[in-house]
Amino acid sequence: MKKYSMDSIRNFALVGASGSGKTSIAEAMFFNAGVTNRLGKVDDGNTVMDHDPDEVSKKMSIYLSLGNLEWKKVKHNILDTPGYSDFKGDMITAFRAVDTAVITVSAVNGIEVMTEQAMKYADEVKNSIAVIINKIDREHAKFNEIIDELSNLSDKVIVPVTVPIGTAEHFKGVINTIKKKAYSQGKEIDIPADMADAVEEWHEKVIEAAAESDDKLMEKFFEEGALSEEEISNGLKNSILQDTAVPVFVTSATENIGIQEILSLINDFFPSPKDAHEILIKKKDEEQMLDLTKYNKKLGYVAKAVSEQNFGEIAMVRMYSGALNTSDEVELPEKNEKEKIGQMFVICGKKREEVDQIPAGDFGGLVKLKNTKTSNTITEKGEHLIVKPIQYPEPVYWKAIRAVSQSDEDKIGPALSKITDEDPTIRTELNTETFQNILSGQGEIQIGLVQKRLHDKYNVEANLTDPKIPYKETITGNADVKYRHKKQSGGHGQYGEVYIKLSPTEIGSGFEFVDSIVGGVIPSKYIPAVEKGLVETMKEGILAGYPVVDIRAELYYGSYHDVDSSEMAFKIAASHALKDGFMKAGPILLEPIHKVQIIVPTEYMGDVMGDISSRRGKILGMSQEDNKQVINAEIPLSELYSYYTSLKSLTQGRGYFTQQFAYYQKLPNDQAQRVIEASKKEEE
Ligand SMILES: Nc1nc2c(ncn2[C@@H]2O[C@H](COP(=O)(O)OP(=O)(O)O)[C@@H](O)[C@H]2O)c(=O)[nH]1
Ligand SMILES: [Mg+2]
After folding, report:
1. Atom of ligand 1 nearest to the CA of 26
2. Has residue 648 been placed in a domain?
3. Is 129 inside any structural domain?
4. Does residue 160 share a domain with residue 104?
5. 83 CB less than 6 Å from ligand 1?
6. Which of 307, 363, 421, 514 is the most core-located residue (most Cβ within 10 A)?
7. 137 lines ligand 1 (CB under 6 A)
8. Handedness of CA 158, 159, 162, 164 (dihedral sign)
9. Do residues 424 and 391 lie in contact, with contact meaning Cβ atoms separated by under 8 Å?
10. Residue 395 has what pLDDT?
């Protein structure tokens, strides 16, 4: 297998809205580079990148996939990502593995939610950015409008490097605005006469962007009004590397137009791993830039660790620094675990070829690793650093998950943990209050696929239901109660008497026990038993089986018996006193309220606001950003479980939200009544 030096490698990820053509663009790139001898189609299920059986059947990308090609002696490592928001996790991880994010935009749809999110994440991990406007051959395709939209969206200089000759059925080829030359399927053609002025304008734009990176170039440009092709090239390359410019290309992936030009321009303008030598890392809880030219240790990042039908278990790794060799011993600093490297492969779609090394800057696949999971950093011993740290989004969709049969119950845990290891946005958690296993993630399709994979791959039948709400119980008033536990049964009896004052405390303060016994009316050795009796009863709940919180209990009087008193007797007395007093002190249920940020195109505002108020939501504030509204609100968790689906359908998939727990608040009486009745029924 051929080895490439760092400056003859380009690493990029195709990211952006679902259906904008990422997989088709990758496919056309492979075809032009001779990796394949025919142009596969997503709809025919025969592309290099959509090779998973789920992807073939759904005709869309679900998992990140890795491929590579050689174009004019330069190796391109291409990461194709799913564009559906449910699979955002794979997009984020891909960003962290590459030097350049190539954001694809459909010429018909223009800027979409995922386009914006991709921009944001690329900025966060400090990637260089390029844009491909694809589907220029489609009816209603736009170009100039999208350039304007992009300029509004980003504070970087948007530089059309290839522009279309005609759109829709008139799309004939592309013009390279640096060279001022036109091409159709690799052959040079004449620039149409009516485009000559526009080409001059584009060319001027490229020069400006190129000069942006360098004061000397800027000066020369102002003085002489022109720059040589080499100066433009170097300048533009620098501007892209420094993230001040975003080159834009146009294509029709399915017609194979504009693809060869991009492949060459990637060689010319995309940073190689050698150029992109500064990466964002996190070391000792601090984010900083690491200069890889001064770092000679092994440093890798796992873009995806999967167990796949086609592969078995494999971890796709980008080496940022150092070369990885068979039998190397490395560390996973996130988890303080070690790993011994075994067999290694070069991966292209579902094909793989064994190699004995993954060189610095390059990608490869590692098999049979025990501890290595998606998004892990790989380092040498004692190097505690994390590559391009980024926060994965909080869940927006939740289900309680349970094995259908007893025999599957033992299998579901390990199977789920394998699935969650592959995608950091899928989480499982045992809710210790409702005793349900909660599976959460970025959407209905993602969570549905977890259920399908449990079945297909791990032979586990699982049920998904709406999770129970972790309500809590508390009181609103005071009570003063006494309880005497007295029993005479056979030998020696049981005796304990307590006087307790109950009062509410601030929300979130928990439980406060006050011992104000004087004169030994209850011997001090029994007092911990009283507290224990209270705490145990609080855990079980009194009103509807939910834990009691935020109360103060003051033990101020009581009595005991020399022979019959015991810890058990006082525990029982305390428990009865609490149950009694709790019901007299204005008991209520508390429900969790979550803070929610909702982003919707302005046209859907009315519907979305109506929906929030029907969910007992409270609007905290609103702000306008371009043609979108950002709504900050608080919504009860019970109303959030179905919010993802509702918001998607209200906004035709264009609205999205993020959420996080905020606080507990009184559940309205009518709702509380329903919860209490439901719990009584369950008990019966
Ligand atoms: N007409 C036309 N169709 C395209 C083009 N690129 C992709 N498509 C079609 O658009 C659909 C989505 O493409 P796909 O590559 O799966 O998009 P992805 O979700 O971004 O990977 C498929 O039916 C493709 O055949 C293009 O340039 N022109
Ligand atoms: Mg795709």
Report:
1. 15
2. yes
3. yes
4. yes
5. yes
6. 363
7. yes
8. positive
9. no
10. 93
* Residue 683 located in a structural domain: no
Task: Mark which of 537, 568, 585 sits at the end of a domain.
Answer: 585
Residues 373 and 414 placed together within one structural domain of the fold: no
Q: Are 150 and 266 found together in one domain? A: yes
Q: Which atom of ligand 1 is nearest to the CA of 43?
A: 23
Q: Are residues 272 and 286 in the same domain?
A: no
- The lowest-confidence range among 24-28, 388-392, 399-403 is 388-392
Token readout for 585 is 């002190």
Ligand with the closest atom to the CA of 138: 1
Number of domains into which the chain is organized:
5
Tens digits of per-residue pLDDT, 102-127?
999 999 999 998 999 999 999 999 99
Distance in Å, CA 63 to ligand 1 centroid: 17
- pTM (predicted TM-score): 0.87
Give the end of a domain, one of 568, 585, 602: 585
Q: What is the mean pLDDT of residues 474-499?
A: 91
Domain with residue 401: its CATH number is: 3.30.70.870
Same domain, residue pair 28 and 137: yes
| Amino acid code (one letter) for 163 | V
Any residues with CB less than 8 A from the CB of 25 and at least 6 apart, and which? Answer: 14, 104, 132, 134, 251, 253, 259
The answer to whether 363 touches 329, Cβ cutoff 8 Å, is no
pLDDT bucket at 508, cuts 50 / 70 / 90: confident
Question: What is the CA(59)–ligand 2 centre distance, in A?
Answer: 8
Whether 361 and 458 map to the same domain: the answer is no
The CATH number of residue 326's host domain is 2.40.30.10
Q: Confirm or reject: Cβ of 162 under 6 Å from ligand 1.
A: no
pLDDT given at position 285: 87
Q: Which atom of ligand 1 is least distant from the CA of 16?
A: 20
Distance 252 CA to ligand 1 centre (A): 9
Query: What mean pLDDT do residues 587-607 have?
Result: 95
Contact 39, 47 (CB under 8 A): no
Residue 23 Cβ < 6 Å to ligand 1: yes
The range of the structural domain enclosing residue 434 comes to 397-465
Domain with 553 in it: what CATH number? Answer: 3.30.230.10
Q: What percent of the chain has pLDDT over 90?
A: 79
Ligand 1 in reach of 18 Cβ (< 6 A): yes
Report the pLDDT value the prediction gives residue 453, as an integer from 0 to 100.
Answer: 92
The span from the CA of 198 to the CA of 181, in Å, is 13
Between 15 and 208, the more confident residue is 15
Residues 461-473 as b or e (16 or more Cβ within 10 Å = b): ebebeebbbbbbb
In a domain, 678, yes or no: no
Give tens-digit pLDDT for 406-441.
Answer: 889 999 999 999 999 999 999 999 998 888 999 999
C-beta 20 within 6 A of ligand 1: yes
Task: Check if 167 has its Cβ closer than 6 Å to any atom of ligand 1.
Answer: no
Sheet with 551-559: strands ordered across: 479-487, 494-504, 551-559, 511-515
Average pLDDT, the chain: 93
